[in-house]
Sequence to fold (276 residues):
Amino acid sequence: MAASDKSNTLKYSIWAIAAAVVILILIVLVKSPTTTNTNVDDSPVPFSLMTKLSSVKQSVFDEIGIGSSTPKPTPLNAPALTSGSKPRVVYIGAEYCPYCATERWAMVVALERFGTISNLKETHSSLTDLYPNTQTFSFHGATYSSPYFEFDAVERYSNKPQGSSYALLDTPTSEEQNLMNTYDAPPYTTSSNAGAIPFIDFGGKYFIIGATYSPAVLQGKSYDQIADSLTDPTSAITKGLIGAANGITAAICGATNNTPSSICMDPTISSIKSSF
Fold:
């Protein structure tokens, strides 16, 4: 065989091998399962999801009442917490915190009854803490508009590990830090629970420390599964989440002196507030 023939044969062999390798790679890629990262932080909450949370039927609120939410907001005899002429609601939590993750669902439902949240983001609790990977929202960077009260949220840490803790996110003002130091401590809570989050102050009239319903009911549930369950009053999620939202609504009404009456004078909310 001539040298040129041998050279061409070698070239064709190399091309054939290369083509076979490419085809094999393509087959592997096509047959390999696609994995989806369900924990994409900082994704805007879809309009469809916000609609579900802001349009819970009044009949569901009324049927649930306080539901399985416990403990309820606690009365607080403190100086009025205001911003200008409006009462002020202050939330302090962290993205990694599973109890904050749980309570935020109820907070969002309650807040949407009085105004509008903008720039709310999807996130999840820590992957290694109790009740790991609870799907939730982050108030970091969000804004709130209501004619009845001001809402200020502080997410102190992200859900991203950094050293032995988590990456810093928001820094509370000196006033906000003083609220926690004063009311998230004895005699308002036990020594073992001091500093627990979330901490929520409703105009200096009520406060919440920790989640007011069990994080267990949200475990393994997607955003839509949680939101879709809110049409079913028999759901454990609805009993906890809507019960907590009603309790938060009643605490807000206490801070706003029952304004607006269309919400605050509802028999269900009035009954809950009188039980605090």
About this structure: DSSP finds nine helices and 13 strands in the chain.
